[in-house]
Amino acid sequence: MLASRIIVIPFVAGLAFEFIMWSARNQDSALVRALVWPGLQMQKLTTREPSDDMVEVAMASLKKVLSMEKESEIEPNEATNKLVI
């Protein structure tokens, strides 16, 4: 059962890719807009603007990483791999 699902993954990914490309080429079509609409509504439902607290934490984290890079505590590529508290 698991093997059959794994085998099908490339085909599903290929179909999804072709659908995305087709919908991009034909975005003026009413049919395409109708088919794409549920996905766009799902994106609206699951994404939202960050709160002020989230932005504050992101800015503090970025400033800390940039200061660590400047002080050469870590290499620039290691900055994203190191937990900063």
Written account of the structure:
The structure is a single chain. With 85 residues, the protein is mostly helical. It has 2 domains: 1-48; 49-85. It is 71% helix and 0% strand. The protein is built from 3 helices and no strands. The termini are far apart. Pfam families: DUF1385. InterPro entries: DUF1385 (IPR010787). This is DUF1385 domain-containing protein.
Task: Give a short summary of the structure.
With 85 residues, this protein is mainly α. Helix content is 71%, strand content 0%.
Helix/strand order, N-terminal first: HHH
- Net shape: extended
Rg: 21 Å
Q: How many alpha or pi helices?
A: 3
Which ranges are low-confidence, i.e. pLDDT below 50, for 5 or more consecutive residues?
Answer: none
Helicity range: over 70%
The mean pLDDT is: 87
Number of DSSP-assigned strands: 0
Give the structural class: mainly alpha
Instruction: Give the domain tally.
Output: 2
The end-to-end span amounts to 44 Å
Largest beta-sheet details: none
Strand content: under 5%
